[in-house]
Design goal:
Layout: H1 2-20, E1 35-39, E2 44-48, H2 52-55, E3 57-60, E4 67-77, E5 83-91, H3 93-99, E6 103-108, E7 113-118, H4 119-123, E8 130-135, E9 139-148, E10 161-172, E11 175-180, H5 181-186, H6 192-218
Helix pairs in contact: 1-6
Length: 219
Amino acid sequence: MVKKLFAMMAAACACALALGSPSAVLAVPADGNPAVVYDGAAKAWHGENLQEQNVIATVADVMPGDALTQEFQLIVRHVERGVTLSMRPDASASTLDALGDAAIEVRDAAGALVAQGMLAELASAEGAPLALGAYTADSARGLRITMTVPTSLGNEAQGQSYEIKWIFTAQEDGESVSAGSDDLLAQTGDDPLNVYGPIVLGILGVLLIAGAIALTKRR
């Protein structure tokens, strides 16, 4: 009985260590930051620890010149031959009519400019997207998107709410894979250490107590 208990405790410890390891299967950001992830092996996008405000900008009760920001990590995994990433805004005609002149900037964690453009031009199918770089290996970088409300915003926007989503695209091996904000939110997940860690530690605690009781009885 005691041997079985120790075997179970060893298995629980191994599980806890696996969840806490940086090489865990999901390899989520260690600090649990929101992340937009492209997986080259799966040829698919997904989100990790994302909240709606990370990838959907809601513009309401703003004044000309106000700035709205969004932040997340852009993560690339399992890339073998290189992939080029980009993003473009996705907005309704009414949103583009009101905010089409909004300036958009993308900067990295160090504050260096990554890409910039105007909302209406970026949202156009004929316009160039915001280029997020080319990657040949696993990578992670923090991104900060800032949208500045145009000075042309008039009184007609008072009391209105506008929504701007994003479409992320990966071009790899001549193929294009895209996902929108809603797709990322539908496929987002939490850090497995935060989800399963307390459970594993609880089980481990119970087993340790049971083992101690068993040893006491044997004595």
